[in-house]
Write a structure and sequence with these properties.
single chain; mainly alpha; 6% strand; elongated
Amino acid sequence: MSAIRLLVLGAVRQHGRAHGYQVRSDLEYWGAHEWSNAKPGSIYHALKQLAKQGFLLEHETAPSTAGGPPRTEYEITDKGTEEFLALLREALVTYDQKPDVLSAALGFVVDLPRREVVELLRRRVAGIEEWRRSVTEYYTPEEGPERLGHIGEIMNFWVHSADTGAEWTRGLIARIEGGAYTFAGEGEPFVGVLAEGQENPYATGEPHPGDR
């Protein structure tokens, strides 16, 4: 799964209706340009592709007061909402994908009900544990990697990564079960997007043709 698809759909959904520069600004506010492929070109390309596929609806707004061309705003469709939620659930439960996909999912985790998130994360832990069991049939971490030569460091790295991933996920489950955060259906959620015209302190400042 590509993180950019989840990020763009989620950002538009949070605004209800947003133009491309708003989406870019939100993702830079999250630092997504540092930990994912959410660069300006990728964001604007994803917006156009998602619109072509029927996940977003395009609205052409009035020209700017400075006389510029009309600005395109995007609104998520019912089909787009279904796609967004499917991608979000997949990202939370699937343990063997790139870190940027999980990072993107964490940005929208409260869009799901609390109990469902806990269940998805428990499935994530179960997947990690099953993978670890299959690996340690051939590699025993307690004996150390040296017995396989330096190649053993490969398996050592992945086993330790699995252990760390499972530990982190269990900690997140505990925090959520303990009442952390406001999930879907529980009241007003935390606002993680910028209001129209609000200055982004983390903006890269790099101009792009799609910024209009």
